[in-house]
Model the fold of this input.
Amino acid sequence: MATRATLRLTYLGAAGWIITDGRITVVLDPYLSRVRFSGRPYGQADASTARNDIRPILRMDAVPISDTAALDTQVPRADFILLSHSHFNHAMDMPYIARKTGATVIGTESASNVARAGAVPEAQILTVRGGEDYQFDGVAVQVIPSLHSALGEKRYFNAGIVPRNVTGTLKLKDYAEGGTLAYMIRMGGHEVLFFGSMNYIEREVTGLRPDVALVAAAQPRLEIRDYTRRLLTALGRPKVVVATHWDDQGLPFGAPQTEALERVKTFVAEVKKASPRSQLVVPKHFETLVLSPSGKVATEKPPAASKRR
Done:
């Protein structure tokens, strides 16, 4: 077996992550702009409001602007950007990061079209459909067909597409789901499985054996039968389970996540029951998980400046 490296996994809030072995940096579903939206037709209709919240309220026909200061601070480099789907709270910040870093963008046709609309060079865009298992220098990426969360008490299904001919700035309503993918990232001798939404296709993940599973943990998972137990059983009860997409992403960074933290306790209980030997982590914003060569995870607190963002 090849010598394992130390991996660092930094939580960006929502479904966003940075994974690096010090040489290659992979960014997952980066969304740091924390738009104060209103009238969203799926999930939470209106963003939560914090005390002294000065963010403008954006209707779905408004053009969102990326928080480039936050992106420059928190995502200084990227070699690859992987998109689970192309809703704005997963994809809108991707073009700025890709243009700035030269990263290769991997995602559905809709995610690719978001990149094109955001002036990402064609040479940086790789469109996938699910089933691919690509080897790059220093990292391998397995693309896994998946499903979006069952929102609206299972009444949501509006995958839509972002069309190829879209140009210029996109409105919030233009960020269609465009299909959903999961990813297995193999880097530094470790395997990290990432889900960007609270759903999966059981037959597609059965038999995978990740060292770390980043499991989307927000309330829509409760619409899926026996979500946590079935998933962890299919994955062979991973050594490390990390809750992702658990926070209230409608709030700005720095606002208390008290209610979301209370809700995620039920996910914690589900994991402990289904896979009691798994190390379970619920990361705070900008915390870094240090995955050692032995497979153990330790948590680093974010710098004080990051906490204040």
Observations:
- The mean pLDDT is 95.
- Residues 7-191+283-308 form a domain with the Metallo-beta-lactamase; Chain A fold (CATH 3.60.15).
- The longest strand covers residues 139-146.
